[in-house]
Amino acid sequence: MKLKWLFAPLSLIIATTAFAHEDVKNPTVKARMMAMSNIGGQMKTLGGMAKGAVAFDLEQAKAALAEIEKTAKTVPALFKDNET
């Protein structure tokens, strides 16, 4: 029953994020947004495990951390140019 109540707000958040990225025309800004979304998605995975909301999976945690590390290395270059 609780899942049913979570579905509507979660769907709204996902739809809003998709539309926010869709309107961006500047490729540098879009790349920044995609990088931050990627990191956020990986943090969601880790946060769920940390809270006990989902079972801890070592391989999944390692994969999320590796993806965060890989993406984080690209972030400084994405902000080198002062574009909005």
Can you tell me about this structure?
- By secondary structure, the chain is an all-alpha fold.
- It has a domain at 26-78.
- It contains three helices and no strands.
- It has helices spanning 2-22, 27-51, 58-78.
- The chain is flat and about 40 Å long.
- The chain starts with a helix and ends in a 6-residue tail after the last helix.
Summing up helix and strand content along with how strands pair, one would put the structural category as mainly alpha
Number of DSSP helical runs: 3
Q: Tell me the major beta sheet.
A: none
Compute the average pLDDT: 86
Rg measurement, Å: 15 Å
Q: For the record, give the distance between the C-alpha atoms at the N and C termini, rounded to a whole number.
A: 42 Å
* N-to-C series of helices and strands: HHH
Q: Helical proportion?
A: over 70%
Cα shape? flat
Q: Extract low-pLDDT stretches.
A: none
Total beta strands:
0
What are the defining features of this structure?
mainly alpha, 3 helices, 0% strand
Topology, please?
Layout: H1 2-22, H2 27-51, H3 58-78
Outline of the structure:
The protein has a domain at 26-78. 80% of the residues lie in helices and 0% in strands. The chain is built from three helices and no strands.
